[in-house]
Automatic annotation (TrEMBL):
This is Outer membrane protein assembly factor. It comes from the Bacteria. Its main location: membrane. InterPro entries: Bac_surfAg_D15, BamA/TamA_POTRA, D15-like, POTRA. Residues 1-23 form the signal peptide. It is found in: Membrane. Coiled coil: none annotated.
Length: 619
């Protein structure tokens, strides 16, 4: 016997197939997803699948409306009957999705078939529900064909002769075909026709999907609505809508990302016109909703020897009506530190998006700071102008021109440092989650040529860092994480190099188990002995093993190592130290709350057990 099955693509994506069952459903694909785990309550639910396929049994149970109803204590006879009648279609849809087209489904309420009970005749109470499913044989493709396809279109490997003929595979294939043509510039590509012929004697499916590419399309005009404080001219500049260029859905995603980066909007909607305009152009409607422009925030970290760090900021996301962002940051650290006095920092930064290109942000930044280190005090002021360019959502670059003036007070008296610098950096971020990475990598490189004035040396400061993450086990329960960092100052004498250009090691950002910036060098002679400063070169490495023990709770074991040298290119004398410890992580919506306990493993800068509390992973 051959059953000729006509399927309809809903919105070009949803394939429908009819099958044998002991119930009727107007939409066998409704409710393919949902449900929850097995329920416990006054109504017993038993799911039986012929053949004993545990995986299929689990999927069916999780998809049932009955499971959800019982878990939510909706156990009246009317509730149970309504859920049971809806579950025929859900089960059939799940079977079709996995290639079972001869399935039979029965659902009994205390021995009575639910499909035979009228909605108004529901029993007052049900004590036992039995769901019995005979999936029948699995059907495979005797033919799997889709045409025409755009160049470069990638379709699921499962859509091939001999593979399981699930409706999910056919849906995904149709979507891939339409998306392929859209990526090729055919915005109105659609599914023109499709035929599915099921041979129930041979347990095979003949599938043919015909695509209608439609004409090649270019972007037309973009209309804008919803903006109140951000003027339209600047909004268009920020969006960078490619009017007149070949249609590409990726360009629309890029427009969304540019607008989202401003922080001005709480909602962004891009709607393609239903019909093409003359010349096969496609107009697009942009609707935005602005959010309150002002925002404040605060944070804190605590260490037993480094003391506390508190920070706060105030931000205006549309200062002059063109998406300009003004942010003022204040930070106080080393509060109660055993190794140094309190440090104060204040930074003011004004950014203007879409300067030169839609992906280039210009900024002006000013910073003042008072640093109270173990052997010296430093007052610092910096003023700079820079450009930040986003090449992609993974790759960014920054270049600036800045002037820095600092005064250092140590045992030798006062020393002034004046430099004109050109800091440049590149970041390549391939982490899947920046707050709690489980896989991917992160690479950064900084190069800062600087020219010194008066007694300040000239040279170049370079710093590179790499991080890598690899997860394994069920639900990525186990994660290996590593970080390596190396830097050096070239062409400059240590004593005449700005102190904030030098490198220390120790503390939560480098080597836990040792106090903050506890490892430096002692090259500068003072009246009462050498003065401790940072070195001209540094290298550090960190390894972590992270385990998720509960849905929101994780534990971490870690080891850190760092070394500082007196000379450039890792030359001269050097000292090293290492630390290790354990930590706990508690997941929150804004990142994991971190609590680490660490102690020294080697080196002479240790000072007992160190405790660290902060937000986010260590790296």
């Amino acid at each position: 016997m051959r059953a000729y099955l006509r399927a309809i693509l809903v919105a070009g994506t949803a394939l429908g197939v009819a099958g044998a069952a002991m119930a009727q459903s107007s939409s066998p694909f409704s409710g393919l997803f949902g449900g929850s785990s097995e329920s416990e309550g006054p109504v017993a639910l038993d799911v039986q699948v012929a053949g004993g396929d545990e995986g299929l049994t689990r999927q069916i149970r999780q998809s049932l409306l009955l499971t959800g109803a019982l878990n939510e204590d909706r156990t009246t006879g009317q509730d149970v009957l309504a859920a049971a009648r809806g579950d025929y279609a859900r089960i059939l849809g799940l079977l079709y999705d996995q290639g079972f087209y001869d399935g039979a489904v029965t659902i009994t309420l205390d021995g009575v078939e639910a499909a035979e009970v009228a909605p108004l005749d529901a029993p007052a109470q049900v004590s036992r529900v039995v769901v019995t499913v005979d999936p029948g044989p699995v059907f495979r493709f005797s033919r799997a064909q889709m045409a025409p396809m755009a160049p470069g279109t990638e379709i699921p490997d499962e859509y091939a002769t001999g593979e399981i003929a699930g409706t999910g595979v056919m849906r995904s294939t149709a979507l891939a075909g339409v998306d392929g043509w859209r990526a090729y510039g055919h915005a109105k590509a659609d599914v023109a026709d499709q035929q599915i012929v099921a041979d129930h004697d041979a347990d095979q499916v003949d599938s043919r999907i015909a695509l209608s590419p439609g004409p090649a399309v270019t972007f037309g005009r973009m209309s804008i609505s919803g903006n109140q404080r951000l003027n339209e001219r600047r909004l268009r500049k920020i969006a960078g809508f490619p009017e007149g260029e070949r249609f590409d859905p990726q360009e629309l995603d890029t427009v969304r990302q540019r607008l989202r980066r401003t922080g001005v909007f709480s909602a962004i909607t891009l709607q393609e016109a239903e019909t093409l305009s003359p010349g096969n152009t496609l107009d697009v409607d942009l609707a935005v909703v602005e959010q309150p422009p002002r925002r404040i925030g605060a944070g804190a970290e605590i260490s037993t020897t480094d003391g506390a760090l508190v920070s706060a900021y105030w931000m205006h996301r549309n200062l002059l009506g063109g998406g300009e962002r003004l942010r003022i940051d204040g930070r106080i650290k080393d509060i109660g530190s055993e190794t140094s006095d309190r440090d104060d920092e204040l930074t003011i930064r004004l950014e203007r998006p879409a300067t030169i290109t839609p992906d280039t942000t210009a900024y002006v930044e000013a910073e003042v700071a008072q640093m109270r280190e173990e052997d010296y005090d430093e007052d610092l002021a910096t003023l700079g102008f820079g450009l930040n360019h986003i090449f992609s959502d993974r790759l960014t670059a920054d270049a600036a021109l800045e002037y820095q003036y600092s005064r250092v007070f140590d045992a030798n008296g006062r020393t002034d440092f004046k430099v004109l610098a050109l800091p440049m950096d590149v970041i390549w971020d391939r982490r899947e989650d920046q707050n709690n990475a489980k896989r991917g990598f992160y690479l950064s490189a900084e190069v800062t040529p600087f020219a010194g004035f008066e007694d300040t040396s000239s040279g170049m400061r370079a710093l590179a860092e790499g991080r890598a993450f690899r997860s394994f086990g069920a639900d990525d329960r186990f994660t290996l994480a590593g970080r390596a960092r190396a830097g050096s100052v070239f062409g400059s004498e240590l004593a005449t190099t700005p102190r904030n250009y030098l490198f220390f090691s120790g503390g939560g950002g480098t080597v836990r188990g040792h106090p903050y910036q506890s490892l430096g060098v002692e090259e500068i002679a003072g009246p009462d002995g050498p003065i401790k400063t940072g070195g001209l070169s540094v290298a550090s490495a960190t390894a972590e093993f992270r385990v998720q023990v509960r849905e929101k709770i994780g534990v971490v074991a870690f080891a850190d190592y760092g070394q500082v040298w007196t000379g450039d290119a890792f030359g001269g004398e050097g000292d090293d130290h290492a630390g290790a410890g354990l930590g706990v992580r508690y997941d929150t919506p804004i990142g994991p709350l971190r609590f680490d306990v660490a102690g020294p493993v080697s080196g002479d800068t240790g000072n007992g057990v160190q405790l660290y509390l902060g937000l986010g992973q260590a790296f």
